[in-house]
Amino acid sequence: MIEKKKLYNIANIIEESRFGGPQKRIINVASSISSEFKTTIFLSKENINFFVKNLKENNLKYELLPITTLTKNFLMLLKYIIFFIPEVIIIKQKLNKNNYDLIHVSGGIWQFKSLISAK
Asked: What is the mean pLDDT of the chain?
């Protein structure tokens, strides 16, 4: 009997959805490992058009999260601080919903909410 190979379940979280190098890397890696790994990409609902278009073109699974991106803009920074704890809880609930073998936080050291949620 041929043993069925397990598809590892990966969550890849990025709080910044504006398309750039980290987002392109996520697409490239997830596409290249799709035969052995089932990847779900979690991203902010803000500035998603080009990123989501590329995810769809590469048949990659993604989920949008109502999370605020860290920024220098005072009002957005205030919103980031006010909603920090509720957004950590939202991310944590999404991660707990599935049994992920690996949680990858993309984008850099400022991805605090994702790091705390993954812990």
From this structure: 88
Structure tokens at 68: 């605020």
Whole-number pLDDT of residue 91: 92
Burial state string for 49-79 with b = 16 or more CB within 10 A and e = fewer than 16:
eebbebbeeeebebeebebbbbeeeeeeeee
- Buried-exposed string 9-42: b where 16+ CB fall within 10 A, e elsewhere: ebbbbbbbbebeeebeebbebbeeeeeebbbbbb
> Measured between alpha carbons, how far is 10 from 13 in angstroms, rounded to an integer?
10
| Residue 6 in this model has a pLDDT that exceeds 80 | no
Q: Please give the single-letter amino acid code of residue 73.
A: N
Dist. CA 28–CA 88, nearest whole Å:
27
CA 61 to chain centre: 10
Q: What's the number of CA atoms in the CB half-sphere (13 Å) around residue 10?
A: 20
How does residue 87 score in pLDDT terms, banded at 50, 70 and 90?
Answer: very high
